[in-house]
Amino acid sequence: MKHNPAQPSPSRRDVLAAGAALSAVGLxxxxxxxxxxxxxxxxxxxxxxxxxVRIGVIGMGGMGRGHLGSMMxxxxxxxxxxxxxxxxxxxxxxxxxxxxxxxxGQPDVEVSGYGDYKELLARDDIDGVLIASPEHxxxxxxxxxxxxxxDVYCEKPMTLSIDDALWIMNTIDxxxxxxxxxxxxxxxxxxxxxxxxxIAEGKxxxxxxxxxxxxxxxxxxxxxxxxxxxxxxxxTLDWEAWCGPxxxxxxxxxxxxxxxxxxxxxxxxxxxxxxxxxxxxxxxLDRGWPTRVCASGGHYIDKAMENHDQVFVTTEFEKDHxxxxxxxxxxxxxxxxxxxxHEANLLLGGNNCVLRPERHFAEEIQEQTFQSEGxxxxxxxxxxxxxxxxxxxxxxxxxxxxxxxxVIVDLATRSMxxxxxxxxxxxxxxxxxx
Length: 434
What we know:
This protein is α/β, with parallel strands linked by helices. It contains twelve helices and 16 strands. Helix 3 links the parallel strand 2 and strand 3.
């Protein structure tokens, strides 16, 4: 339909069989997280200093190429001792470009290319995989990777649905030796750690209302990536593999190159943009699971895009807090990033965290500014993951936090399309129409 190294590793045959089974499960779009098999991953050991961490990259489209280029710069600048030893893509053009980039950036490293990600996972000399595929593949690839003993860095949004997110959460809970980093890089910004500490210490009183946004603009529309006329299914592209867990649609080059514009394949602004802002805010607030989500959206400028170009989301949490979030691809003026408390507020719009008292508490609370440095947040997040592969320490952008964010993403998307509010029960981890 158009538009629409140290521990033993499983054998290659075992990994391919397990991967095929798990991928088949993903084809059942209605299967709940509780119905899906949870693999037992092998044990993981720390990697000694002097031994490079060996990484594979799955998905060599725009985001994957961006990661690869940044990693080549980090290797050149000796930011950490790691190697990219394998790349994978169902598009042979992207695959060839990526293999060339990785080989030229690491002249002493043999870089292998794969069209099937399960063949990459079958290698027992790869420590972790970075997944930058379209988001409908994130859950299956992440679970398959952990089953194969690979630590995971998965691009945001972590999944396309709540059930997919809970499947990953159940998998990581059953395999606490594994590390999975979700690619929400603003988790590396110190201002949110300052905010979390101040809230936990009671410096703002009860946090009542927070707000944030991700708004940008363009002349002609969002996610209008260039279309490569050389991409042809059956010749340069394995289209069935690209569709994967969603089932095979008729090939549409617009969908392949610009899938974030289409409802079936992406949650648009909410999953691609708003997760960046919501994730560190939810981390700082520590208000538990979202319990009620209501959202509205419109097609105001980019009417050719199936997903909305303007959204507004209201979320209530377990521990008496409400968050409002705005997103736009047709106007770049957003909301101030702010956490309101009964006694004081936290202003988070710049690099710093500013504590500012409410008028009634001005004599008791002094305004303070907590300084933070500007950093390459995405590069730092990726290096944090690689360091955790080496040391087995916990990474900073964890799966449970991403699952809480995915509740908002999924329910806000439902709300925008059906016009109602949705609730989530943290005890049963189930959602229903309000």
